[in-house]
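Anyone have tokens for Pseudouridine synthase? Sequence:
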Amino acid sequence: MLIEKKFERTVAEKQRGRRIDHYLISAGIGVSRSLTQKLIEKGNVLVNGHPVKRAYRVKTGDHIEVSFELAPAPQIKPENIPLKIIYEDEDIIVVDKEKGMVVHPARGNFEHTMVNALLYHCGNLPTLGDKIRPGVVHRLDKDTTGLILFAKTDYALSALSRALERREIKKRYDVICWGYPGLNRGMIEAPIGRSGLDRKKMVVTPLSSKPATTKFYVIERFPIATYLKVYLITGRTHQIRVHFKHIGCPIVGDSEDD
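Reply: yep, here.
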């Protein structure tokens, strides 16, 4: 059974000039950015009674109405799973993610994730409307290890999400790729979207894609591989593996590399 939702806001002066999808998320529509964008594309978002395009920038006094339906969120159960906690205070918790662990529940996988473990450890996590990914600020792929930052309060989740959107949070990755990327430091700029042959895979493509930029520095060269420090300027799905495969230097151990 679907649940009917209606969201209404009047744009305040301080929000003037924001793109409509950014405004809706900051105003608390309570759904993911991708779903928000789909609602705009389908004409479910009305500004002063008229549908708008995603590029629309809100004006002071705009009356915004959004009507949509949502499937009820499944219950995410706490699980007593050991976590390697690096730092924790009243607002945030930083966890060292192990290889093979999924960050948050998703379709067909609602158990044994970091969110299940954190719900057991913390007792509660903020949702801001997203009950599938409570406390989640950013993600790492299942087989990627590293530090993940989670929010423990509504304020922290909102503030960290805005900081991430403004690229005020820097993410660095240690990477070993096959071969040598050709420069000791460089920038890969290539749009990423879903493959036309396999919709589950992300590839560099000019079709229905988003701009993506990856910065890298060579730390050490080996006979058949290179150790790099990599920084994401944008945050597209599987960005690092897609970009380095695109330049002929796939990531060592990447299970997605066919």
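The mean pLDDT is 91.
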